[in-house]
Amino acid sequence: MMFSKVCIYGAGAIGGWVGARVGQLPGVQLSVVARGHTLSALQAHGLRLHSGGVSHAVPVRASAQPADLGVQDLVVIAVKAPALHDVARHIAPLIGPYTVVLTAMNGVPWWFLQQFGGDYANTPLVSVDADGSIARAIPAQHVLGGVVHASCSLRSPGEIAHHFGNGLIVGEPCGALSERGQALQALLAQAGFDATLSPQIQKDVWYKLWGNMSVNPISALTGATTDKIMDDPLVRSFISSVMLEAKEIGTRIGLAIAQEPEDRHAVTRKLGAFKTSMLQDVQAHRAVELDALVGAVRELGQITGVTTPFTDALMGLARLQAQGLGLYPA
């Protein structure tokens, strides 16, 4: 097996879901970097997953210190974007010459323009990696991008409930259909995921972002679930304007979206009274992912010469609220 030593960095809802599935495979040695109550729970009970009426636990080797776990074949980073700088400071002991690092995160990642974007290729994104420390800690040759299409939540530390969706998309930032990409797709499929190897992972990242970059911060600002947001014509029109700005940016970097905003609104409506992850973060008083979801889009607009007045307004309002709550740097 190409990936026999697997480490989950961030055993929250998504990281725990992935780890509990992969950890069941024969020949996989599963480790987790965790702290506090999560670390204690993992050491006592392993990773516990409830999905489709079935519950199981997977034993793990858990530690707060990556050096205790050693070099891995696969590291899955499944933290919220504000925590990524802390990951970068500590991840080095997990990475050897052939380690693959899979990012299973929301928003625009630091590697987004690595070997991609035409005239804008290899431009660093200051909004998500201001000092370049993430890129230095996790060199480009180790990275595989990931996009998650699933809903999971934490029942308690180390205990995950999987609600719906089973999709995992992985791909090389450079677009190559590599041997390691195929091996990872096969591993995830064997673990029971609807796993896809993408020929352009940035397109999958951008399409998911196109829907949640506006609804997430608006829900955080208003406290409204997605059904109420979609039912308000003034708010829906504002969201459409934000999406059209992002659509033009995508076109300029090679990520054209064929749909119109109303097409995506119809998809969002099907979620019903859904509480977005950013609203959940605000209510739990956790740092919000504004830079990865909105700030990076503004920066890409500046890089590509697309004016973004609606995105700017959304960022300003959401940032002001989050700063007032202590959930975003002043």
Can you give a write-up of this model?
The structure is a single chain. This protein has twelve helices and ten strands. Helix 6 crosses helix 10, helix 8 packs across helix 11 (290-304) and helix 8 crosses helix 12 (309-324). It has helices at 13-22, 36-45, 84-90, 133-137, 179-190, 201-222, 226-231, 233-252, 261-269, 277-283, 290-304, 309-324, and strands spanning 5-9, 29-33, 47-51, 54-58, 61-63, 72-77, 95-104, 143-156, 159-171, 194-197. 42% of the residues lie in helices and 21% in strands. Strands 1, 2, 3, 4, 5, 6, 7, 8, 9 and 10 form a ten-stranded mixed sheet that branches. Helix 5 (179-190) links the parallel strand 9 and strand 10. By secondary structure, the protein is an alpha/beta fold. The radius of gyration is 19 Å and the shape is globular. It has two domains: 5-199, 3-Layer(aba) Sandwich (Rossmann fold); 204-324, N-(1-d-carboxylethyl)-l-norvaline Dehydrogenase, domain 2 (Orthogonal Bundle).
List keywords for this structure.
330 residues; alpha/beta; Rossmann fold; N-(1-d-carboxylethyl)-l-norvaline Dehydrogenase, domain 2; 2 domains; 10-stranded mixed sheet; 42% helix; globular
Q: Helices and strands in order, then pairings?
A:
Elements: E1 5-9, H1 13-22, E2 29-33, H2 36-45, E3 47-51, E4 54-58, E5 61-63, E6 72-77, H3 84-90, E7 95-104, H4 133-137, E8 143-156, E9 159-171, H5 179-190, E10 194-197, H6 201-222, H7 226-231, H8 233-252, H9 261-269, H10 277-283, H11 290-304, H12 309-324
Parallel strand pairs: 1-2, 1-6, 2-5, 3-9, 6-7, 7-8, 9-10
Antiparallel strand pairs: 3-4, 8-9
